[in-house]
Amino acid sequence: MGERPCGPRGRSPARSPSGPAAQGRLLWAGLHPPLLWAAPRLPRATRAIRPPRPRPSAPPLPLPPPPPPEALIAAAAAMASRLLRVGAALRLLPAATARAAPARHFAAPGDLATDEEQATGLERKVMEAMNKGLDPYSMFRPKRYAGTKEDPNLVPSITDKRIVGCVCEEDNSCVIWFWLHKGEAQRCPSCGSHYKLIPHELPH
Amino acid sequence: MAHQAHSYHMVDPSPWPIFGAAAALLTTSGLIMWFHYSSTTLLTMGLLSMLLVMLQWWRDVVRESTFQGHHTPTVQKGLRYGMILFITSEAFFFLGFFWAFFHSSLAPTPELGGQWPPTGVKPLNPLEVPLLNTAILLASGVTVTWAHHSITEGNRKQAIHALTLTILLGFYFTALQAMEYHEASFSIADSVYGSTFFVATGFHGLHVIIGSSFLTVCLLRLIKFHFTPNHHFGFEAAAWYWHFVDIIWLFLYMSMYWWGSC
C-alpha cells in the first residue's frame, strides 16, 4: 500500500572522496606511497590554545558568601547526575530556543574557556544547532505529530526518501518499516498514520 | 569537513590498534622468555612498544577531540559507557584475587598451621602505615572532587591546585607502599599468604600508578586550556578511575590488612 519498490528511484547521491577523512582512506589503501596512514594533523588555521581573550570592563567580583547547605547538596546531586549525562544534550530541544544556553557566555581572563569560545568542528556545529533548537544530526527522538492528513508526521531527509519505522501503538513490538518518498504524504500500511518527507540540505 | 548526517565519529584509519596487538604479543612472549630463560630482550621491546602505542594513540584522541571537534555529545556518551564498562571489568579482575584470598583464609589448611595469618607470618599492623595510606587515598578522593567542581565552575587556578594535590597524594601513597614492601617481614614466597597479599596489593599499586599517570596527563591538559566547564570527559574518566582505585584499596584494607591480620 504505502510500500513502493526502491528501484530506479533509489540511488544514493554520488559521494566522491574529499576531505581529510576520505584522504585518510585513500592513503590507507596505499595510493600514496610515502605515507602509511594519515595521523590526525593539527589543522593549520585552528585557533591556538591560548588564554581566553581579555574581555573589556570585567569588574572584579567580590568573594561570594559561602553557599547554604541546600546549595551544596544540590551541587552534589548535579554532579552525580553528570555520570551518564550527555553534557548539554539533556537540555530539551524545544526548550533550548526559549532561553539562552548556559554555555553562551565568555569566561573571565584566567578562567577556563567555555565551549562557546573553544568548541570546534562537528562538536561546534552540533552545539550551535542545539542552541537554535534544531536537530540536523538526528540526535534526539523524532517529533511527535498527530499523524492526520492535516498534521502529518514530518520526516526530514537529506535525500528524496527515508526509511520510516512506525510503532503504531505504544509498546508495540512489531515495527512497521517502509520507504517514505518525496511528494505526497504516505500512510502507514498498518495504522494509517500520515507521513510526509521534508527534504533538506545536508548539514555542512 | 566530513559531510555526514549523524553525530558519530567515524575514525580515520590508524595503525595503533595493530601495533598495540603486536606490542601485546611481544610483551606476553617476553614474559615467557623472562620467566623461563632469563632473557629480558623481548619483554623490553614489548613494554617499550606498548608505551609508544599508548602515547601516540591517546595523543591522536586528544587531537581528534580538542583540536578537531569530533567528540559531540553522542560520542561523549559512548566514551562514558566505555569507561564504565572498562572499570567494571577491572572490578571483576580484582574480584578474582579477593576470591583467592578468602578461599585460602576462611579455611586455612594444615600446611599453614590451621590458622590465618599462617604460623610464623607476622602481618603488617593495620593501624600504622596502612591506615595512613587509607587516609591519603580518601583525601585524594576529596581533592579530585574539588578539582572537578573547580573545572565546572571555570576556576582554572583552583582546579590546577586541587589536581596537583591529588597527584601528590597519589605519589605519597605509592612511596609509602613501596617502603612497606621493602620493610615487610614476609615476601611473596611465604605461602599462600604472601601470594594473595602481594598479588592483590601489587596489582592495586600498579593501578595507583596508572591512575596517577592518567591524572598527570589531565593536569597537563588542564594547564593548556583543553577542558571547558561543560566538556572535560578526559578528566571525568580519570576521576572515575581514581575513585575506583580508592574503593579497591578500602576493600583490600578491610579484608587483607585488618581482618586478615587478626
TrEMBL record, chain A:
Gene3D superfamilies: Cytochrome c oxidase, subunit Vb. Pfam families: COX5B (PF01215). GO terms for molecular function: metal ion binding. The modification N6-acetyllysine is found at residues 143, 161, 196. The keyword Isomerase does not apply. It comes from the Eukaryota. GO terms for biological process: mitochondrial electron transport, cytochrome c to oxygen. Residues 54-67 have a biased composition (Pro residues). It is found in: Mitochondrion inner membrane. One of its GO terms (cellular component) is mitochondrion. Keywords: Acetylation, Membrane, Metal-binding, Mitochondrion, Mitochondrion inner membrane, Transit peptide, Zinc. Its main location: mitochondrion. The keyword Cell inner membrane does not apply. This is Cytochrome c oxidase subunit 5B, mitochondrial. It comes from Gallus gallus. The lineage of its organism: Eukaryota, Metazoa, Chordata, Craniata, Vertebrata. The gene is COX5B.
From TrEMBL, chain B:
Keywords: Membrane, Mitochondrion, Mitochondrion inner membrane, Translocase, Transmembrane, Transmembrane helix. GO terms for molecular function: cytochrome-c oxidase activity. Its main location: mitochondrion. PROSITE patterns: COX3 (PS50253). It is found in: Mitochondrion inner membrane. GO terms for cellular component: mitochondrial inner membrane. InterPro entries: Cyt_c/ubiquinol_Oxase_su3, Cyt_c_oxase_su3_dom, Cyt_c_oxidase-like_su3, Cyt_c_oxidase_su3-like_sf, Cyt_c_oxidase_su3_a-hlx. GO terms for biological process: aerobic electron transport chain. It holds the Pfam family COX3. Residues 4-261 form the Heme-copper oxidase subunit III family profile domain. It comes from the Eukaryota. The chain crosses the membrane at residues 16-35, 41-58, 79-102, 129-147, 159-177, 197-220, 240-259. It is a multi-pass membrane protein. It catalyses: 4 Fe(II)-[cytochrome c] + O2 + 8 H(+)(in) = 4 Fe(III)-[cytochrome c] + 2 H2O + 4 H(+)(out). The keyword Disulfide bond does not apply. CDD domains: Cyt_c_Oxidase_III. Component of the cytochrome c oxidase, the last enzyme in the mitochondrial electron transport chain which drives oxidative phosphorylation. The respiratory chain contains 3 multisubunit complexes succinate dehydrogenase (complex II, CII), ubiquinol-cytochrome c oxidoreductase (cytochrome b-c1 complex, complex III, CIII) and cytochrome c oxidase (complex IV, CIV), that cooperate to transfer electrons derived from NADH and succinate to molecular oxygen, creating an electrochemical gradient over the inner membrane that drives transmembrane transport and the ATP synthase. PANTHER family: CYTOCHROME C OXIDASE SUBUNIT 3, CYTOCHROME C OXIDASE SUBUNIT III. Belongs to the cytochrome c oxidase subunit 3 family. This is Cytochrome c oxidase subunit 3. It comes from Gallus gallus. The gene is COX3.
